[in-house]
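User: Could you walk me through two proteins back to back? I'd like the raw sequence and the structure tokens for each, with a short line separating them so I can tell where one ends and the next begins.

Assistant: Of course. Protein one, sequence then structure:
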Amino acid sequence: MKCAKCGGELPSPPYFRNDECPSCRADLHACVQCLFYSAGSYNQCLENQAERVTDKEKGNLCDWFKPSGKGAATSGKDAAKAAFDSLFKK
């Protein structure tokens, strides 16, 4: 499992509302750490029965929370630059 904010290693779930990343102290029971989090979706959540959460990085009490463990997200621009740079490495 990896933190969505810093990419650091996380302890095994379950995560509760006040649990934090040991590296960056980001809340672990937060939308950005959830499997259902999707920036491009309505309410930024793929679970249509979940209540709306305004601050996606703060701990919450959502009953639908499932840890994703994807780690820190890279932007499309960063991913494209990394792919381009890898083409011309010697």
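----
Protein two, same layout:
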Amino acid sequence: MQELINRVVQNVGLEPALAEKSVGLILAFLQKEAPEAANEAFAAMPGAAELAAANAPDGGGLMAGLMGMMGGGGVMALGQQLMSAGIGMGQIQALSKEVFAYGRETAGEDAMGALVGAIPGLSQFV
């Protein structure tokens, strides 16, 4: 995962700690939304499962519950988490492109395609 974090630092312009946190948030989202597809992709990405687990939300509290009830979870909730961490909209797009490019390079197009296909609305961001 360090290679991916370094790419995010260099290509997105995030500080190393924020790059690690943001990659972890994306991986945790993928794990939560599509566990089977994520496990397959993560098997080829050493450290991905651990980073996802370290950044998994704790349930999100009242606000996450309300968003879920109103249909505002999923990709939108991830965007909110990333913005709350201090990442701008332009950086979120660049960040997601880096994460998925790395995933395609390491896990392969089929594994990442299955992961993207398993999560409604994700394809428009990657």
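Residues 12 and 94 are 6 Å apart (CA to CA).

Let me know if you want the two compared in more detail.
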